[in-house]
Every structure is written in C-alpha cells, then in structure tokens.
C-alpha cells in the first residue's frame, strides 16, 4: 500500500527490456548514437513538429532548471504557482541554473495558476532596473495538486504571457497523466497552445530515469545544448536515456501507463469519498488524490501499513479548510498500481470497495 | 575496431543484470532505499573509512563539478593539469558549480602534474584580494594521458597542497584502471595519501551511468548533499545508480574489468611499438595508448574501419614532437575489449600480432 | 517640495568639505591609505568592538548583497520582510551575490517582521535536501515603512534565529535615523542584540555615495574582502569613501543629520494628520511618512509641485485598507529638509502649519 | 616619488570643482538627473555615435565585468591577453558577472595580443558542447605593458573576431592615454575599428571614481542596465559620477591630462634609458615605463624613497630576459606627475636629467 509517490516503483517491463536490448555493441557516445536520433524523430512525429529539438536528461529537476535557464536571464523573474515543484521542491535548482533569477509564486486552487492572478501580476507596469522583469511563466501539467490545464486554459495563459514578452515553460513531469485525461494531441496541449519548452517526464510513468527537454523554438536549442553539458547532464552512454524514451513512446506505452495510473486514482477517490468525514477539496483529474481525512482514519490507514504524505494547505479553495481533527494528505497512483492495491487501501479504510 | 573511448560500450553483464534485479517492488525514492545504503557500506569497507560519505550521480562531470564546488569558494582557484578533463572537456561545469572560481592549468608530461610546477605555483606569495586564492588541487587518476600517480606521488603533491591550505580532489573517472596497475588498496591511493574527495568512476568501466562522489572529510558532506540536489543530480529512483554500483563493487568486478582493459591496452601498445615509424611518447600505464603514427599508417587504419581520436600535443615530453608526416592519436581499451579486437587493429596496421 | 527620497539631495557641507580636503597628495590605493585605517578605528570605537572589520562600498545594494553572500550558501535561504529593499528593489542583487540562494518574505505591519511569523517559519522541521535551508535573517533598520526595531525586539528575533543556526544581517540604510530615535548605543542596537553583520548606510543621510559593511564576526571578514573585490566594489582611490565616512562619524554629524530628518518627518506627520480625511496607518518612527490621502488632496499636492511616490499596501495593519478615493503615499525627509520645506507642503495641502 | 600607479593621486582640480558644483539642490536619483543626461550627450558627440548607450560606474572592474557579461553567455569563453587586468587582477570579477564563463589568455609582447595567436586560436574548429565557445575578445587599450593598439590593428583583430561570431570589448582603463598617443578620433579607435563595448576609464586620469560603459550596439543596452543594477553599481546619487565625467570630457580636459602623463612617462623613459645597464624591453607608448634595472639601481631608488612595483616577465619579447642581477619594474606617471617628480627620480637614479 505504497501511495507515497509515482517514483517508488521501478521501470515498466517494456522499458526495462529496452534498456537490456540496447546494451549490445559499441555506440557513439554523448547522444550521437542512432537510437538517440530515433528518439528525436519519434518526438517530432508525436508532437507534429519537424523542428523540435530534443534533449534527454535523467531527472525532472534538471529538465526544468535547464529549460528555465534558457528562457530567463539572470536578472529576470519566472512566474509559477506558489506551490510548484520548481518553487518548493528542487532546492533552488532553477535559481542555480538561471544564475540567480527569481521565482515568483502565484496563487490558485489545487496548484493551478488563477488566470486573474497572472493578469494582475503582468498588469503592473514595468518599474525599471530596480525590479526583475518577468521573462517566463512555468505551468505544471498536471499541477502539484493533480489538476489538469485544458488546452484553451493553456492558450489563454500563454497568450497573456506572450503579450508581455513572457515565454512559457511547461513542467510536464506528469504530462502523460494530463494528456491521458485531456484526450487531445500532444501538440494541442503544448506548442499549439503557446508552450515554448516542455519538460517531458517519463521517470514517474514507467521509466527509471528519463526526461526530455522538448524545445519548440529552434532559437533556444543551442543554449540548451551547452547548458545541459555544463550542468553535467549529458550522459556519455546516451543509449541509457534513449532506450527508455524509445520504449516509452513506442506503441502508446506512455499513454497506456498514464491511463492506468489515472484510473486507479479515480477508483481510489471514489472509494475514499464514500467514507464518512472524508472530502476531496478539488477534483481528481490525473493520478493524484488529495483527500481531507478524519485524523482517526489517517491513523488507521498508517497503522495498516499505508504509505503516503501529509500535504500543505495553501492550495485549498476559498472557504475550505482543514479542521483540528482532520488531515490533508496526498496519495499517488503509478502505472504499476493495481485494483488490488487500491482496494487494499480502501479496505483498510473501512470502505467496501470501488 | 572502436577504440574511440571506454564509453562507447554498454554495461557489463553483471551490472545489467543488477539493474534488472533491482527493478521489482516499491522502494523509497531519492536514495533512501536499502540498496543505496548497502552501496555506502560497500564503499566504507572497501576504502576502510567508516565515516565515508557517498553520493552517487550519473555522470563524471557532475561528480567533479559538485566535488570541486565543495572545496573552492566562488572567489578561489583550483589547480589542475592544463589538459585535465575538468579544464578542457566539461564545458565549464566546474566553473558553473563553483560559481565562477577559476581553474588554473599546470604543465606536466602525459597529463601528470609536474611536482615542481605545483611547488612553484604555490610558492608565489599571496597577493591580496586582487588575486584568486588557490583552494583546491585536482589530480586525474589515471591522467588524461593514461599515466598513473603512485601513492607516494599523490602523498607528496597532497602534502604540498595541504601546507598551503589547499584541499585535494581526485578525478577518478579511470580510478579502477589506475588501481589495477598500482595494486595498492583504495585507501592507500586516496585518503591515506591526502585526498579529500574522490570522483569514483564506474561508467567507463562497466556501468551504464554511475559515479560516486566519495567524501573523506565528514565536514564536507552536507554541502555536497545540497549541491547534488540543486544540480539536478539526485535521481528519484535511486535504485538505478545503487544497483550499478553494488554490482560494480561486488566480487572485485570493478578491478577485474579494469585489469582486462589495461591488459588490452598493453597488448595494443606492444603491437604498435613494433611497427616502423611508431613511437609512444610516454608509457602505457592504464587503458589508454597514445602512439605517434606515420600519417600513412593512420590513414590505413581509418580506411580499415578503426575508430579513434587524434590527440593534442601539449603533454609531450620535452624534446619530443610530432613531425609533419605524423599524427598523435589516442586509442582506448575498455573492459569489453578482447584480444580479437586488439589483434584486428594490429593486423590492419600491418603488425603480425601480439 | 521634493519628498521623493532621502537620496535626491547632495552631500552635507561637512562631508563635501572632507572630500575636498582628502584630495591632496599621493595615497596608497585600494583602501591601504591612512584615512581608511582611521575610519576603521572610528567604527571600532563607536561600536565598542575592537575586532570589527569594516568594508566601505559605494552603494547600499552592494553592502547588502555582499553581506548576505557571506552568510548564506548558494543552496540556502534568507528570510526578510516581504517588502524589504533586498526583496523588492535591488533587481536580484542579493540572489546574484548569493549565487542563487533564495529570499523568502515574511509578513508584518509597516515593514516590520512579525515575531510570530518568524517563529512559525523556523518551527517547520527541516525537510532534507529538497528544500533550501534558512541560513540568514535580514532585518531592515529602519524598516521600509519607517518603523524602528527596539534593541529588545532585535534581540528576540536574533535569539530565535541563532537557535536555528540562522545568522542575522541588518540592512541599516537608515540606521542613523533608527538610532536617533532609539537613543541607545550603536552596540546595543546591533551586535549586543545579536546582529552579525550590519550594512551601515551613509548615502541617504549626508554622504554622496558611502556605506560600510560592518562585520562583527571576524571569521566572516576574509570572504567579504574577496567578495567585495570580485563584485567590483573595491574603489582604487579609497580616499573617496574614507573621507565621506570619516566626516560622517566625526562629531556626531551622522546622528545630528538623522535627528533633523526625523524631526522634519514628525512635523510633516503632525501637520498631515490634522487634515480631514488623512490618516497614518502606522506611526512615524524615523524619517518617512506614509499617509493615506484623499485622492483630491494627492492631486492638489502634485499640482502644487510636490514630489513623492505612491506606495504599496502589503504592509497595512489588519483592518486597514485604502479606499477607492484614497491614496497611500510615501514622503521622505532628509538631513537637508527644513521646516520651510515641510511647511510649504503642508500649506499646499491646506494645513495651517505645524 | 610615487610611481606605483596612476590611482595614487586624487582628482584633478577641474573634476573636484565639478563635484562641489553639482552638489546643490535636489536631483532625481539613479541617473535620471539632467547632469547624467548631459554626460550621455557629451559621449555621443565625442564618439560620433547618436545611439551610444552610456552607463557610468565607479570602478573599472565593474565596467569590465558588466560589459563582458553582456557579451558572453555563462557557457562561453572570452579571449584576452594572458596578462590582461581582467585575467589577473580583478579577483574573478569577470567570471562572477559572466556566471562562470572562462577567460582564456593569449600571448603577446608588452601585453599586446599577437594577431597570429588570435588567428590560431580561432582557427581551431568548434568542438561541440564539451568545449566553451569563444564569444568575446577583450583588448586592453593601452595594454598592461603600456603599449597602444593602432586603429588598423584593432580593426584587424576585430574583423577576425567578428568573422567567428566573437564580439569585441575594449578595456579602456587608460583609453585617454592611448588616444593621446594615437591622435585619432575616439570613433576611429573604437567602433569604427569594430569595438562593440568600451570600458571608458576616468579614475586613473583625473577622476576620483568614475568610469563609463559605452555600448555601441543598442541591442546590448538593456541587459547592461539590469546587470549594472544587480551588481550594485547604480549609484543613487548619480550626480557624483555625472559631475566627474562631465568635467572630464569638458574642454578636452581628459586628453590634456593624458598627454601630460604620457609626456612624463616619455621623459622618465628617456632618462632611464641613458643609465648604464638599464634597458626598455618594449617601447613606451602611453604613461607606463617598464625598465629592466640593475638590482643595485633598483635598491638605490627604493632607498631614496621611490615607490613602484616589480613586474612579471611573461610579456617579454622573444630573446629578452631578466638576468640574475636585474629587476623588471613598472613605473606609472599620472596627470599629476610633474617634471620635478620625474627629474627627482632620475636624480636619485644618478641620471643628469631629461
């Protein structure tokens, strides 16, 4: 009953097999191998973007930090949700790679930036050199709260950003989970909606350690190539990342994995919501569930061996709050989560199944 | 006949198997899993150092840059060989992680810092705030030229460094190859000889992507832990690195691999040296061979499909030079290089075998 | 009627004379001159601190940024008021000099950090390498809202900080104005109350361009010396800064200047408060006045030629707000502000004098 | 007899008077005052460049570091003479402001970059992301050895640089001394010869603390404006810098000062050259003299109270060397150096006058 994160599980069989398969024989190092080239072509086809530049890296923190560094000068600012991963969980990696540029947090329920908050921030007239000019907006898809931006929402936020000379980055650590919900094309969810760079995640959804920085603006490719290398993120044996990403994209494996995780999260949410005293402050749109539990239930689950994290309350909707005897927690389902896993937790919670 | 680098080959069978084996079941993320703990214990035992702090990362550039950043303040300088990997091949990763500290190159044959050059540099009296004070010395073991520092040589350089308040880093991307030659213990080659931090390489010698920053001074552990994370180098699925390192250290696998690579380099060197017009400007002490070839021989080898890199001449001994019709090249053997591979190259070169 | 800032006026006569006087003859450069040494001695006597290290610089931004860089590692965080100058008006200079460390804003009325907010922030248990550890607290004295921390308030905040391994910086751009109000000794207001480094301002209170970084912890002196130089803040003709600071400290000139500015602010506040519809959301404790004005009055003042800035409302006390037809503004008095200046503004406002 | 540097003297009378004159009355802060605007216009007229952007700062180190940061990305390299001030005397300020970009030193006699060395360096084909691409060339005018680049020399180096996508910076700490020798227009010596940014020095030639970053490419102005502020180099009382620069440029004061310094250097050189055992390894072209002195003469001069620095020998012409009983030293004349000063030193040296 480990619902702590979608990174506590290993690789999917398909991806592990691909790592093994790719191991034979000599291959050019540093990403100059044919498998890496094939991955680029897969991404270009998938995103309907022939000029797409693709930079595999091993961690999401690296993908985000390098991407933002390409968009924000050291004296600039990057807007994001006040609870975004880049803001709160990467130990300042973005600030490091951006050389001191500032992350500025915007509010919004469930980790989703409120359009009015963005508009208000951008409406403040530029105040000269004393103030760090906003140069990028980072959207998390899905959000830290497991919500999903619709393409028209992304387009509206991006349009507002671009009007102000602000580039758009999408932190897609859970992009697959978002897309599985949206049902649109990758292009519709990203560059057609105004996204300039996407941190495309795979590690949380079937890979062991593989992400890709997808650059929709060719003018940004060179700076990212150099920044990846000087960040120590260009693997010498590029086949390791390429094999994972190749299998991840093949035959819709990535979306199938994500759909499974999302289904399990929905099942978990339905089961929990039926329990007395449990409520979900915002909907479950991807693979994460954020219930407010009675403290006694929380204790019972933990005693039964369930693993998951308490959660912070900044993203709660207006009017919602966590009472004395309550706990806001986060449960995450992965591609490897089964109905059995979910039902075991629900059983421990005293529910009668999904 | 690919002698371009020891990173053109995949993982050894033992390591690949370990990756597969480690894949099952949920494990705590970010290195909090039992396998990562076991790797730390292996390193502590191997290096006879119970306080050793161990930080796995995926690339050697990351290991070096993070290690140096722990030793050198942003206003300081780090001495290294003028052809060291940190100086010439990492796109400024050390300067990035050190926040602008300067690398200062010292001369020496075959990539080995000449003790007199170090002594002369450190003998210059401190010149106040206009000048960046030297705070670290980085030794490459084996060197970029494939030479190996003896423990007493390391100890002499380290003693000189420490006298001047200068910490000692060892870039051990090919530490296994060096140790296989030295035959001493890991402790004798490192901390007993004055090394403060070791970048312990595995990727070039059987792993796919695994290195470890080994910190012999406990006071430096915390800053490295944070710097690894903010560098984007803390993998969420720590099992990937742990599995590789565990198998690498188990049953002397690492030294067996290195010994094989070294034997093949020696065989290659012997065969080449017998050819007319070929000479080795410095000895082969690890797994790299740097012959000066007649241009015609170089052309013949390449025509036959041999892959290797031309090399720069800065490390040549006094009195040695590369003539008009000659080429200095680098050939590297890996754990996976066989006698058949070596003999095929020698045959193409017109040699009659080893 | 220029109340825009205390930096719109030139130097005091005493300080200008000192610049002229110091100009004759050759002097050792880079602060090695006798006048610079004399300034250090003046500061040591004034602060009753024989080990005090003194680093003159030309701007307050430089003083703050260099000081914070000595206290906070690149992966750390620095707490300050959410409207502190370091947070909002220095274009990221602290982040630049700290190499990407993060500023975290705390709330509080009138720019004064609420002790409960600090306690709450520091009470959150450390969360490992994913989160930037707090390493410094920066207090503005006087605050951006013109309030003054009492020595016991500083001591309480500092004690809390030090308990958590957090060093204390004081941004004393208006330290003289604060001290003129407090009436205590400089030592009581700073190191005896737990301050580790003080940015001691003079430019706003009689100098042309002179601040001093006062370092009460000798272990921090060396890193600041180097960081000042590499920041480009070590003037070659050190006499310029030394002459200003020498005259500033001589004969209580600095406190006399500050007292005059504070008196004028008090007079201005008294006069404005008597006007219908005007209120002061927090008290005037130094040389800055923040009235909420009826919009019509604001317009009348500007039409009469008064110069001052609109102000932001984040620091308003709970329950206070600025209505539709109102404006929160900031008026600053300097050492050179006279009763005539104040009364002219009050007259334009329709007041009948102070 | 202080020939240690041209920064051991105070301001010229004209400039000191200007500081005093500019002190009266309120003026907009941060360079928004009319005097600062007038200085910009003076520079534009002087350099025949209506689009020139002008950024006054207080130190030459700041001017150089900010200028280079505008030209070189953090992953790039900047070529300069191996003994350039930016390389050896600024404690890594350029690397700090450039965020870790590398300075690469080129050889050349008397501090002047040998065109062949530049050509050879740029001729090396780009080697991909492992290597930091060259993005700027910094020329010191006059050089650290007191030599002066002719406009056609600057043009040749710049053309070569621009062909390779390399921008050109000129460190003009002693630009006035160079121009006084050249007799050409400022435009001919700079942008017409391909210079993109000039660090225009005044502090060494009559000002107390005033330099200006002159930006001939308007696209670079914005980044410099922000970088100056975040470097802490935007003075609040901009009048201090503006007054100095205004007086410096007025009525040819700057060139008159430089011409005097140069004349005194020439007189000094002539006198020294007549002494037995003294030789000048390269010509005196500005205000610096680098004689090789017999050790006994060096001792006699110091005993007589002469102040000057020993100098390093890397810039010596091929075939020249400093013998056992000899010393290479540097003597600098300033605008304030008189014939009496020079003749006193020559008399102490045993010369019979100029």
TrEMBL record, chains A, B, C, D:
Keyword match Isomerase: no
One GO MF term attached to the UniProt entry: L-allo-threonine aldolase activity
Catalytic reaction annotation: L-threonine = acetaldehyde + glycine; L-allo-threonine = acetaldehyde + glycine
The enzyme's E.C. designation: 4.1.2.48
Keyword Ribonucleoprotein assigned: no
Alphabetized InterPro entries for the sequence: ArAA_b-elim_lyase/Thr_aldolase, Low_specificity_L-TA_bact, PyrdxlP-dep_Trfase, PyrdxlP-dep_Trfase_major, PyrdxlP-dep_Trfase_small
Pfam families, alphabetized: Beta_elim_lyase
Keywords: Lyase, Pyridoxal phosphate
A GO biological process held by the record: L-threonine catabolic process
Cofactor(s) the record lists: pyridoxal 5'-phosphate
Domain Aromatic amino acid beta-eliminating lyase/threonine aldolase: 3-290
Group of enzyme by EC: lyase
Family: Belongs to the threonine aldolase family.
Subunit structure: Homotetramer.
Role this protein plays: Catalyzes the cleavage of L-allo-threonine and L-threonine to glycine and acetaldehyde.
PANTHER family assigned to the protein according to its UniProt record, in alphabetical order: L-THREONINE ALDOLASE-RELATED, LOW SPECIFICITY L-THREONINE ALDOLASE
Name of the protein: L-threonine aldolase
Organism this protein belongs to: Methylobacterium oryzihabitans
